Amino acid sequence: MPESFGGRIIYLLQQYGPSFAKGAGVSMWLALVGTLFGCIIGFLVGIVQTIPVDKNDSTAKKILIKIVKFIFACYVEFFRGTPMMAQAMFIYFGSAAVFNINMSMWFAAIFIVSINTGAYMAETVRGGILSIDPGQTEGAKAIGMTHVQTMINVILPQALRNIMPQIGNNLIINIKDTCVLSIIGTVELFYTTKGVAGALYTYFESFTIAMIIYFIMTFTCSRILRVLEHKMDGPDNYDLATADTLTHTSGMYSYRERKDDRE
User: Fold this and answer.
1) What 3-state DSSP class applies to 12?
2) ABC transmembrane type-1 domain location, by residue (predicted)?
3) Which of 27, 168, 216, 254 could make a disulfide contact with 189, Cβ separation 3.0–4.6 Å?
């Protein structure tokens, strides 16, 4: 074992580089899949939480909506108010002890990350939907759109752009928080680092490597998501196409003329 700090870092990378890479791959995979399913859960819960209750609705519908909203509110508050490590222990070991449900380690890991992310995303989606001007919802209903059609075609596309930074933030948090899944035996980056550090008593060097790997993963994802946000913004300037020559002014062009030019 080299005596210098840099020498020990190089030695660990030479001896355990593939193990670090495999652990980092597992962490990234769990974060990506967990964030994806968490976003799906969050969108569903967030949309349900913003379902309007009209005074003309039947009593049964009002009661049903209130019950569903109450259940979802309890879910959000519970999983936002407890640490993921405790949730992992409760779900993985508790499901086997109480309900005799033996989850596989990988299913439990994805499930835990997904429902935890879903609780945070639910509030993000709810806030994103409420941030859209109510006049757009009223306009959509005025032309005969149902609540579902209004959400899909008018509200959610705009809300998605508003909540994109938070989706990226949840992904970055999940990359780091997958380390708590080592408590149920998931061999991700943190679990691998503990094994290397314990075998050679190189805790400082091993976790220095782990921190650098975590930073590379989070920084790369952050840059990619920033580019995606700019793509969703579209160009700064637009040309309005119109087929009506009477409305053709500066900043507009004739759709037919432009089409002829391309041909």
Assistant:
1) helix
2) 24-225
3) 27
